[in-house]
Amino acid sequence: MGHSETVPGERTHPILPCADLDQALNFYNALGFAVTYQQRRPNPYAVVELDDMVIHLSGLDGFDAATSYASVIITVPQLEQLHESFKEGLRSSYGKVPIKGIPRLLQPRRKAGTPTGFSVVDVGGNWLRFFSTGAPGDEIPRTGLGRVIDVAARQGDARGDEARATAVLDAGLLRYPHAPAAERDEALAYRAELEERAAPSP
């Protein structure tokens, strides 16, 4: 049967690892996901859902979140609203919005080569990369200091390398001393965020 004869409706559901299933479920609950399935035997396993997003979680003994390479791309129609909802839920459950370490929520930001988006790192160290659907304006590359900020975000947000992102920003601020005030403000605000994220926890 050819593809043109099939009826669309496919779904892809990632299975993400975690060391402690209860901690993972608490985190996803804070984001607003509902637990729709869970089991403890023969292996810890659960499913969480929010609107059309479905994520499966697998508890693995001895799993180290810091070594996780799992990453999922999720496109959503209302990026900013979802980010605000996540912030509110995390603040309510954790007393603050975690921005460094594991877990964390990063700000929506343009990145070189991709549309505007934001990332969530869950308690298993898995990256949930959220992007806006149908935002062609974000595809237009910026120039000057704006381009530098986008490149820095690729390092700092997409790759989690705060030191490299800070170095990129510092070089850009020196290279474009007469950049528009809005771009300089954006660069300096991002640099301050990177410094906070890179600072050791008390």
Radius of gyration: 19 Å
Biggest sheet overview: 5 strands, mixed
Q: What is the number of helical segments per DSSP (H or I, 4+ residues)? A: 5
**Which class of the largest domain in CATH terms?**
Alpha Beta
Q: H/E element string? A: EHEEEEHEEEEHHH
State the total count of DSSP E strands: 9
Q: Strand share of the residues?
A: 15-25%
Mean pLDDT: 89
Shape: globular
- Briefly note the structural class of the backbone: alpha+beta
Total domain count = 2
Level-2 CATH architecture of the largest domain: Roll
What is the H level of CATH, i.e. the homologous superfamily of the largest domain? Answer: 2,3-Dihydroxybiphenyl 1,2-Dioxygenase, domain 1
Low-confidence stretches: none
> Do you know the CATH topology of the largest domain?
2,3-Dihydroxybiphenyl 1,2-Dioxygenase, domain 1
- Spatial gap, N to C terminus: 60 Å
What proportion of the residues is helical, as a percent range? 25-40%
Structure, described:
It is a single chain. The chain is of the alpha+beta class. It folds into 2 domains: 129 residues, 2,3-Dihydroxybiphenyl 1,2-Dioxygenase, domain 1 (Roll); 57 residues, no CATH class. It is built from 5 helices and 9 strands, in the order E-H-E-E-E-E-H-E-E-E-E-H-H-H. Strands 5, 6, 7, 8 and 9 form a 5-stranded mixed sheet that branches. A 4-stranded mixed sheet has the order 1-4-3-2, covered by helices on one side. Helix 3 packs antiparallel against helix 4, helix 3 packs parallel to helix 5 and helix 4 runs antiparallel to helix 5. The radius of gyration is 19 Å and the shape is globular.
